[in-house]
Amino acid sequence: MIISLFNTTIKRVIVFFAAISYCTIFSMSCGKGKNIPDVSHIEIDLDLIRFEKEMYDIDSSIIEQKAQELAFKYPDFIKDYTSVMRERSQKDSSDVFVLTHLMKGKQMKMLHDTCMVLYNNLSEYEEEIKQALQFYKYYFPKQPIPKIFTGITEFTYQGFTSGPETMYLGLDYFMGKEFRHYRSIFPNYQSQFFRPEQLVRSSMELLTGEVLGDYKENNMLDAMIYNGKKLYILDHLLPYTPDSIKIQFSTEELQWCQNNEFEVWSFFSNEDLLYSPDKRKYMKYVMPSPHSPGMPPEAPGRTANWIGWQIIKRYMKNNPQKSL
Fold this sequence. Notes:
Layout: H1 11-20, E1 48-50, H2 51-56, H3 63-73, H4 75-85, H5 95-104, H6 106-119, H7 123-139, E2 147-151, E3 159-161, E4 166-170, H8 188-191, H9 199-212, H10 220-237, H11 243-247, H12 251-259, H13 261-270, H14 279-286, H15 303-318
Parallel strand pairs: 1-2, 2-4
Antiparallel strand pairs: 3-4
């Protein structure tokens, strides 16, 4: 039985571990014991645009006029936003037409009104984002500070970037796991992380993608190393944030991974998953899923990403001359 791997010692894996000098790293701290630089002197001019308010906090009689004004005011962003939100029946329609259609939509307006109960004021999150951007500027001084738009996508997109200079965050993805609209759309293993405390983390994850750029995924190892790099960057942009939030595990799931690190690596090696090019075989180990197939039921999905994170941590520890 595959699960029996978690109760046995496998010689070939021990040899492999010795060959790569792979060591266990345990960390559930929120900044304790970390060498966190002082970034208080770094000035961040945060440009956060409440696009959902500009769309919906208006008189219904001037929607067409307002849509034109927004298209003129934010031409590049509107192009990206309407591209994400455009329905098939609207694919040949103008950006202004699509925006007007969205602004007239009753469901979108109702969702906006609901979101505003929680997010009418974003000052608390602005301070957290600003601090994260101070770390971002410290570690990546050549990267621009993005203009950040918030909005509503009716559960189409949690967020996206248009290059390193523009970011979008869909507030309807951070309403709390009990938000009634999630139940009929998303499985629980996804919606349980649609919480306010994930908003800043999600914004910084978008920036890690801009820093790392695209990559070619030939096998599971490529994916787990890439995702491990993203998590390692998040460690530095969000040094006071719990690891469970950064990787989107529950505290129990994170503890399970820490307690079973060797066995998880053993499983991947013995099932010949590390160099497998077949995404169907390894997708649940690197993408959101209810659990990792073949492992005990306590094992969360995306266990490969957690292992990738530990590999990057160990690599950076062993190569102190390497910068972020």
